[in-house]
Design goal:
The protein has helices at residues 8-22, 31-45, 50-57, 66-73, 84-103, 122-137, 152-160, 165-168, 173-179, 192-195, 228-241, and strands at residues 110-115, 142-149, 162-163, 180-184, 187-190, 198-202, 214-219, 242-250, 264-267, 270-272. The chain is of the alpha/beta class and 278 residues long. The relative contact order is 0.12.
Length: 278
């Protein structure tokens, strides 16, 4: 059957539910967008009305549908080396500082990175490529990367690490040769030497962090979908996961510059959790 558009009352009910569930704030002018995304789930589940679907989501039996619901309502847009200056900082200033600390035995030999809204994996593997390129010049250290997202669908794609030619075409030839293998004319997979350094987990950003003592956390291009209250909740959780002296890298449009007084601003996009006073 063809489903009609959400009523204003239904729209507000779903908006509130989504906000409480994951902190994402659906804008008031997105009624048609949310309608179209919910239609997919009604067709997939065979549920006939939005009210029945809403009731199902809130029931014990509907717990298994939450993943599909979140996959439908979240936006996942990313690319390799998106906002390249962030990765220039990672490859130069950050690595140089960490190597100096490792050599002085002020830090263990493994650097830990969290991509906190990793989508389909391009950010995670860009981080991995940058760190591996630096490690080739001075292989006295290792790195581990955690990629998390609330969408199970994009996490499965990230784990597969398979991308089209169009997705990787702008990467330098040397990087493509070293870190990707061809699976066909339009399918390239990140090599296992990089994939093995990455772990993926499902995570809701307003929930407590899945791990802690990260040297750097990337939180980019996701908080634009959150309102101010939700952003504050996310920041509180993220900061807990950063070790003293560690860094937070944010996107240019997150709208949180005035919400980070506990961190020292090092660049327009990099903030540091200061070491405790001696």
């Amino acid at each position: 059957m063809e489903h009609s558009q959400l009523s204003n009352e239904e729209f507000e009910r779903f908006r509130e539910f989504i906000w409480h569930l994951c902190g994402i704030c659906i804008a008031e002018n997105k009624l048609t967008l949310l309608t179209n995304r919910l239609k997919r789930r009604l067709r997939a589940t065979g549920i006939e009305t939005y009210q029945a679907y809403f009731d199902f989501l809130k029931s014990r039996a509907g717990a298994s549908e939450l993943s599909g619901f979140l996959d439908a309502i979240t936006t996942n847009e990313t690319s390799f080396f998106r906002t390249e200056k962030h990765f220039e900082w990672l490859s130069t200033e950050f690595v140089t500082e960490m190597l100096a600390r490792i050599r002085k035995r002020e830090h263990e030999e493994t650097i830990r990175v969290w991509s906190a809204a990793c989508s389909t994996g391009e950010e995670v593997y860009t981080i991995a490529v940058c760190l591996e390129e630096a490690r080739r010049k001075s292989p006295v250290w290792q790195f581990e990367i955690l990629g998390t997202d609330i969408s199970q669908e994009v996490l499965e794609r990230a784990k597969a690490a398979t991308y089209s030619l169009a997705t990787i075409k702008d990467l330098p030839d040397g990087l493509k040769k070293r870190y990707f293998e061809s699976l066909g004319p339009d399918a390239f997979q990140v090599k296992s030497s990089i994939r093995d350094r990455v772990k993926f987990l499902s995570h809701n950003l307003i929930a407590p962090p899945p791990a802690n003592r990260f040297d750097v956390v990337f939180l980019r291009n996701v908080l634009i979908y959150f309102n101010r209250e939700s952003k504050q909740k996310v920041i509180e959780q993220i900061v807990k996961a950063i070790r003293p002296g560690g860094y937070l890298v944010i996107g240019p449009s997150e709208g949180i510059f005035d919400m980070l007084p506990m961190l020292k601003r090092c660049h327009p996009f990099v903030f540091q959790k200061e070491l405790p006073s001696a």
